[in-house]
């Protein structure tokens, strides 16, 4: 199975934010939408960074409350790992585990088309395992 299947089920809507936004506003957006990361985009929906809850906690620990007034360009993760719709679920899981991150923007021809979280991947994998188990059970019962 591929990332495209996850996006087909959940849709391609991604909460994005501009790089000049302050950390406080970004934190409010994360809370409002009950999500763990915002994709920072430039012109034409090109990914220029990602801001996660972890990024915010880290800068708050280092700089205190004044960090809330910093622009995202000073806080966001600039080296963003991405995937494409044709990537397999297992390869995405491996990248997330190796990189210790929970969100992976999906790009197609350089443009943002979706995002997958570790929760999406686990949910999809569980459904896949349930289908396999059901198919095996049906096969055994009819054999």
Provide the fold topology.
Blueprint: H1 3-10, E1 16-17, H2 23-33, E2 37-41, E3 47-52, H3 53-63, H4 89-99, E4 103-108, E5 111-117, H5 118-142
Parallel strand pairs: 1-2
Antiparallel strand pairs: 2-3, 4-5
Written account of the structure:
The chain has 143 residues and is α+β, with helices and mostly antiparallel strands. The protein has a single domain, classed as Roll (CBS-domain). Helices cover 46% and strands 18% of the residues. The protein is built from five helices and five strands, in the order H-E-H-E-E-H-H-E-E-H. The chain has a three-stranded mixed β-sheet. A two-stranded antiparallel sheet has the order 4-5. It is elongated and about 70 Å long. The model has no long low-confidence stretch (mean pLDDT 93).
Q: Provide the low-confidence segments as ranges.
A: none
- CATH C-level class is Alpha Beta
As a whole number of angstroms, the C-alpha radius of gyration is: 18 Å
Main sheet overview: 3 strands, mixed
- Secondary structure category: alpha+beta
Question: What is the H-and-E element order?
Answer: HEHEEHHEEH
């Amino acid at each position: 199975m591929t990332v495209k299947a996850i996006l087909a089920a959940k849709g391609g809507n991604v909460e994005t934010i501009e790089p000049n936004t302050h950390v406080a506003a970004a934190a409010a957006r994360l809370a409002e939408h009950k999500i763990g990361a915002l994709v920072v985009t430039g012109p034409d929906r090109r990914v220029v960074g990602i801001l996660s809850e972890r990024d915010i906690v880290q800068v708050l620990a280092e700089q205190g409350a004044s960090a809330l007034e910093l622009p995202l360009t000073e806080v966001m993760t600039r080296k963003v790992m991405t995937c494409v719709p044709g990537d397999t679920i297992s390869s995405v899981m491996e990248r997330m585990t190796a990189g210790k991150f929970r969100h992976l923007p999906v790009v197609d021809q350089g443009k943002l088309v979706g995002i997958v979280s570790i929760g999406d991947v686990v949910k999809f994998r569980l459904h896949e395992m349930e289908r396999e188990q059901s198919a095996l059970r049906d096969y055994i019962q009819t054999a």
